[in-house]
């Protein structure tokens, strides 16, 4: 079904057409212009899918393309090694040369459909060809990005493929040189199995049950405000969103009071565009099922009326015990369970005993507690006295570990993920000097 498209991209790659840095910059400029010229269309599509403004998300994706244009020469430079090996002549040159992998498939999710499609920008910057497969759940965005790309790019270089599970299944039958998927562990296992047939490397960004440990020394008002932002923004449908809270019985009541104040400070959530909506009725029903299966005690329920037709799901706080239904799967919605533990050490042990999350958060004024949390817990990334912030800077990579994913993306880190850094030794005594090697 997609053999012709993939083979045409492979032949285009083999021709060397993607190697020139100036040509790559021209392609990235076209990506930037595509996003800028279609910002209103893409924003409206995101609103149609999620009932929130998508303008900032498009702007952030433009920034990633712009950064790649400005930094490409620097990223693509061969990395020299000091010649200290006895068996290598003192006049020889040793380098790591970044080279593109080939044909890259990027499968993006629905929750932040534009910024989570940005790995295709990194793939193109690294000199690959790319196929983008947006999520069918965000159908309006998928159609909008496909329409925006149509006729603007040579499909041998970049193409957008729409469709659902059947189309993705057919795509995965093809031989790619790298697959990047953002989504959930269940689908990731299917992708890994398909990739294994061709020994195709994968990058997986999978989310998880991100814990928030609130200690007795924390600024509770500050902690509550930041935690609630993570549950209100995009209606909690963020891979880095705080999933559940760990705290001590002595701290719980005061913390809950601050959490309620933080939720109530938003006013009418149904009218707040930061809150968005649950993406579809299937996900709305999933949240209701897990809530119904919980034996937790409701500590706060927003008084606005839940509306399945409008997919409006008001937030709730529940006190739960270990093993509760709300602690078994990533919630991806505005439900906030609180599990009380006897001590900081038991909270850390609880996190250690469960799958490694994409984000782990601790609120404390105790320096030693912060250090121990960072050292003793394993996660894709950590924020101390904040949530999600480690995923917001362009200077740092974004990625998971264990059940929350593998590999790194974003800006220079994405460039390196979609490159092979090839060791090169040049025997200068045996031929003409080739320095400088930049642009090799």
Automatic annotation (TrEMBL):
Gene Ontology MF: a single term: aldehyde dehydrogenase (NAD+) activity
Q: Indicate the segments forming the Aldehyde dehydrogenase domain, all copies.
A: 5-422
The Gene Ontology biological process terms listed for this entry are: aldehyde metabolic process
Keywords of this protein's UniProt record, alphabetized? Oxidoreductase
Question: Which Gene Ontology cellular component terms are annotated?
Answer: cytoplasm
State the active site: 205, 239
Which family is it part of? Answer: Belongs to the aldehyde dehydrogenase family.
Q: What is this protein called?
A: Aldehyde dehydrogenase domain-containing protein
Q: Which organism is it from?
A: Mesorhabditis spiculigera
